[in-house]
Amino acid sequence: MATPLASRAPKLRLPLLTQKGLEVPPPTEKDWSKDDEREYVFKDPDQQRHSLPQPYRMINKLVDLLFDRSWEIIEERNRLREAKLSRIQPTIYPPVFQSKLGNVPNCMAISQDYVFIGGAKGFSIYNLFNAKRMCVWDKLKVGVTSIWAEDLGNDILIAPVDEMGVVRLFYIYKDSLFFIKTINEVEDTNKQTPCVKMEISQGGDFAAFLLQGAGDTWLDVYRLPKESWLKEVEHPQVTTNPKKKVRQPQLNTLDSMSLDNLEMDISIGLKADVRLSAPLPIVKIKPPRPITGTTFKSPLEVFAKVEGCFGLGSGQNHFIKESQWEQQAAAFQAMYRKFLDGGSEDELVSMATFYFLLPSCLIMMPAELKGPSGVPCVLGMHWTGRHNFFFYSLNRTLRDKVEPESVWPCAAPIAQSQLSSCGSYLVLACEDGVLTLWDLAKGFPLGVVALPEGCFCQSIHFLKYFVVHGGRNVYPEGSATSQVTCVVLCTDASLHLVAASGTQEPTTCTLVERPARHPEEAVCAVAPVPPLPGMLLL
């Protein structure tokens, strides 16, 4: 039997153990359960969602896709916002004044102190400084689609073209408007020869009109008797013939409330009773004939056909037989058949680009034929899809034989060309993306430039020559000699800067790259701003 003292002994030892503290042994790998280690598998947290039943798995995928796309849109918007803030903000130029027009204008031209606006039935003349309408001529049944105004010094030559392609010439001297002539109007509208393009030389000495009709295309060049016009308007001789009625354009009488009480200052009147001298036609140029097999029997006949080297290089006078052309065409078709299949064989409508060129070293003119300084003496032109650039002398008459004085053959068809405003530089762009820069005054090429692969020229625009100094554009004073700067807009909406100087190799740099991700930002047109050198309107 246990005594009360014996039963109390364990209870007295417990407080002694707790005072020393419990010793917890450190964990060791030996204590791990082998069975749990074999059964444990590391699981991907994303795979836990795969265990969800349908349709919750599909809903989860759609929500994830929505979040991913939303995040991409947010990042793209932030990138565009940062790019927009980093751009140089352009200066905003508010209009000096505003003039409300009664009808939507079709075209516009500016010369001296006047603005010429083509409308639905004619054209109007406005003052450039106060926007007041000074004259209206609206006796046409169709609208005016384009208008040309050339400054002749104290007078102005106006050439509106209507929707039927009819060209009319007007002459402004002081406060009077004179009608000169209709270039291509005919009585039978079925035989109409519309004008598709025109060019007036700087100073108004010559004019050229590209006409089409009856499936044919040709260029009519006229000499403008501006000295005779000046004498005829200063000393007018009114000619009236009661037996013959001459249809003359008339000035329209303006209604005071027709254009919402627009301010009008009618100070230019039409002088219908004064007749001016008609332009003098000097040459009619047709597209070159397609090159076919030779009709010559010996090489001597070929050299005899080339008189004075006129037309040399055009390819018209050769000694290649028709059978040789056929063999060459068959070999070409066999070699490049896979590239030619599906191509259209329809003949393109002949179009021409032409310029009036000043005297230069390219074409040596006889001393007795040289005109005054600043007057063009040569017409330069090229036809659509042709390799050659032709030069025709303007010192001729209609009775002279139409032969080019010089021909520039190119390796590929000429796609675009541009003449500088000073008339000293010419750029020829071929269909293979190669540009040739010419110094017409000196008579030698400034350089040949190849655009990047896949870029083809759409338009060329000259800029005032500049050099970069200290990170800024510096424009040398005076006219630069053999120094050219131009921008080239390509068909893929990229914009390139081309510079050539003397004998140095021309340089190119990309100003605007092709917008791959944002086609709405593509450059579709370029226009330089002459009063602000180095500035472009895109």
Question: Can I get a quick summary?
Answer:
With 538 residues, the chain is an alpha+beta fold. It has helices spanning 4-7, 9-20, 34-39, 56-86, 226-234, 299-305, 322-335, 337-340; strands spanning 107-111, 114-118, 123-127, 133-137, 144-151, 155-162, 168-173, 176-182, 195-200, 206-213, 216-223, 269-270, 280-285, 352-357, 378-383, 388-393, 406-409, 414-419, 425-430, 434-439, 444-450, 457-463, 467-469, 472-474, 483-490, 495-501, 507-512, 527-528, 536-537.
Tell me what the structure shows.
With 538 residues, the protein is an alpha+beta fold. It is 16% helix and 30% strand. It contains eight helices and 29 strands. It has a five-stranded mixed sheet, with helices on one face. Strands 1-2-3-4 form a four-stranded antiparallel sheet, with no helix packed on it. A hairpin with a 2-residue loop joins strand 23 and strand 24 (472-474). It starts with a helix and ends with a strand.
